[in-house]
Specification:
This protein is α+β, with helices and mostly antiparallel strands. Helix content is 28%, strand content 35%. It has a domain of 153 residues: Porin (Beta Barrel). The longest helix is centred in the last third of the chain and has 31 residues. It is flat, with a radius of gyration of 58 Å.
């Protein structure tokens, strides 16, 4: 009986020893058959697929603010600010205007047909302003022997003072003045306004009932300022049926016969000299012959 128990105990020890050796073999597997996850060099495994999905879904939200930052806010002040237009430059060609002053509602006291320009001509500066008839308004007044014509335009005015002399049977302008607020020369610091007043003059003289006419005149106003009057015909007082009277031309437009007279006198003198020489020569030849 004891031998049987001893044999059973030894058999149990043998079985347990065999099981232990099998377990050691299982734990000592070779490196080639070990799972790849045990030899990964990354200490932290990659994030799960669920987290990557959340990142991809958030990327569109980051791009939405970029669309709002590209609003053209800088273009508003340049495109919508009103700009003042530059001052128009008068044309280079003279323009003739018709100006009248009424003594009453039906009778014309002063009538003028002319083109005007104000000119600055000095060694340091030059410039010209042409009066525009379309933007010029004529005002004035008339008395028994005095009348004035004032031409008003946006840049200033020009005034002509007429005087009627019954003793001399003449109507003339005895004063001219103007004021101009326009930069004749933009390079000069001392610019507008330009003013001039010239009195004690005897201009545009014509007989009473006649009109004065002249193609071109330049009135010196002082300080290098000139008032150029072109294609002029004017009359004050005694306008018959509101029309110009007989024109009295200026000295520049009157025909000059002095050259023709000088040429005629010279030819006459030459003819006389030729005749005298011819007669003297003929007389000498007649004295040279002797009678037989």
């Amino acid at each position: 009986m004891k031998t049987v128990v001893v044999l059973a105990f030894l058999a149990c020890l043998a079985v347990s020893a065999l099981s232990l050796t099998e377990d050691e073999k299982i734990n000592r597997r070779p490196a080639t058959v070990s799972p790849a996850i045990e030899f990964s060099t990354n200490e932290h495994p990659p994030p799960p697929t669920t987290k990557s999905k959340t990142l991809t879904t958030t990327t569109p939200t980051t791009t939405t603010p970029t669309t709002t930052t590209h609003k053209p806010t800088t273009h508003k002040p340049t495109t919508h600010k009103p700009t003042t237009p530059p001052q128009p430059t008068p044309p280079t060609n003279l323009t003739v205007g018709n100006y009248t002053v009424m003594a009453n509602k039906t009778a014309v006291c002063v009538m003028a047909h002319m083109a005007l320009q104000i000119r600055l001509a000095t060694p340091k500066s030059n410039g010209t302003f042409i009066v525009q008839p379309k933007s010029t308004h004529a005002v004035g007044s008339c008395e028994a022997t005095k009348a004035n014509l004032t031409l008003e335009f946006p840049q200033g005015f020009i005034t002509f003072m007429f005087n009627k002399s019954i003793e001399k049977n003449t109507v003339y302008v005895d004063a001219v003045s103007f004021s101009l607020n326009y930069p004749l020369d933009k390079k000069v610091a001392n610019g507008p306004p330009y003013t001039a007043n010239n009195k004690s003059m005897n201009l545009f003289a014509a007989k009473i009932g006649h009109s004065y006419s002249c193609k071109s005149e330049a009135l010196y106003m002082g300080d290098g300022m000139y008032l150029d009057v072109n294609q002029d015909q004017m009359q004050a007082f005694n306008l018959n049926k509101n029309e110009f009277g007989k024109p009295d031309s200026c000295a520049a437009d009157k025909p000059d016969y002095r050259v023709a007279i000088a040429v005629g006198v010279t030819l006459l003198v030459l003819i006389i000299i030729v005749v005298v020489v011819y007669l003297l020569g003929r007389r000498k030849r007649a004295n040279g012959y002797q009678s037989l």
